[in-house]
Amino acid sequence: MSSVTAHNSPATDARADSAPAGPPAGRPSILDRVPGFAHPTDRFVFGWAIALLVANIGIVATGGAVRLTKSGLGCPTWPRCTAESVVPHAELGIHGVIEFGNRMLTWVLTVIAIATVVAIWRRRPVERFNRRLSVLLGLGIPFQGVIGGITVLTDLNPWVVALHFLLSMALVSGAAWLVYRLRYPRGSSDTPGSAGLVARLGRDLSWLIYVTTWAATYLGTVVTGSGPHAGDENAPRNGLDPANATQLHADAVFILLGATVALVIGARAAKLGQYRTSVMFLGLLLLQGLIGAIQYATDLPIALVIAHMTGSALLVAGATWLVISFSRSNDDSAAENVSEQAAR
After folding, report:
1. pLDDT at residue 270, as a whole number
2. Radius of gyration of the CA atoms of the chain, in A
3. Number of CB atoms found within 10 A of residue 265's CB
């Protein structure tokens, strides 16, 4: 999960600032008059992808604030706030304002997603996979909104709430994937290709880390659904024992920690290019674990729970970056070997 600004080179910056050929000549569209969209540069498209990733992580935090302030039913129905009104009225109080405000943020995210899709589709040369991925992410946002509406209509059923959160994590992962692909186009990666057994083990460990990150995230939603922050006082719980659910979540985190430490040690010993990325992920994981331990020991204060939820989104983004980095590096190495054999 290395910083996306970390591996800049003059060649990359020059490519980003170049004015590439835009869409095919023809009748001018309104987008031809919009700054940046007429002939999108690499830097312009990359900026929108970053905005999409940040917005998807941000809405995880605001959605958590809705639940933690017991505002999940601040607007008692969906898609309208009440049966009579689209917007909250005074009788709903601050909870109605908080819930309605979070719903409005979905529109902000939608605008960013549309801008990202348009920028990628107008970029030349065409990268079909990036086009499809951006459209998929864009379509995921209204779908996620519908799931959010179902959580309201089911009175914050904990399993539906968990699905809502996990879909947000999927959008975060997809956005991180898009950012990586734009930062390192086809034929390049953030690290040089690495061959050999150690590199392959590193790739396998990165996949274990990615899968375990998702397992820990899911079990975190199970913990939430069993505890005091599943919703307001009247919201249903999942009926599981909070202590047992917390222990399962902690077990998954310990497996994740062990795999990450092994990856860091192996990357350091083999001098793999992903060593720095692995260390950064380990640091993020340790910070997330510390926040989780403190929130558990201090009876789940709202601020720490929101920080922990945001940390979960950052971990998913980091695990995505890590696994793509290792997979891309191995693919590049394999391609180089094939080229060398063909040259002989």
Report:
1. 85
2. 22
3. 12
Q: Write down the pTM of the prediction.
A: 0.83
Q: Which regions of the chain are under pLDDT 50?
A: 2-19, 21, 332-344
Question: What is the residue type of 59?
Answer: I
Q: Judge contact between 321 and 278, C-beta under 8 A.
A: no
pLDDT at res. 191:
62
120 contacts 130 by C-beta, under 8 angstroms: yes
Give 227's DSSP letter: S
Q: Which tokens belong to 320?
A: 């995505």
Tokens of 174: 């997809």
pLDDT reported for residue 234: 61
For residue 80, what pLDDT is reported?
79
Phi-psi domain of 29 (left: phi exceeds 0; alpha: psi -120 through 50; beta: other):
beta
Collapse the DSSP code of 17 into the 3-class scheme (helix H, G, I; strand E, B; otherwise coil) and give the result: helix
CA angle 213, 70, 62 (to 5 degrees): 50
152 φ, ψ to 5°? -70, -45
- Residue indicated by tokens 């391609």: 335
The whole-angstrom separation of Cα 109 and Cα 58 is: 10
Distance separating alpha carbons of residues 92 and 118, to the nearest angstrom: 38
Burial 93-111 (b: 16+ CB within 10 A, else e): eebbbbbbebbeebeebee
**Per-residue pLDDT, 188:** 61
- Cα 86–235–79 angle (5° rounding)? 20
Contact 48, 119 (CB under 8 A): yes
Contact 313, 60 (CB under 8 A): yes
302 in Cβ contact with 69 (< 8 Å): yes
- The ranges assigned to domains in the chain are 30-186, 190-335
Q: List CB contacts of 93: < 8 A, sequence separation 6 or more.
A: 74
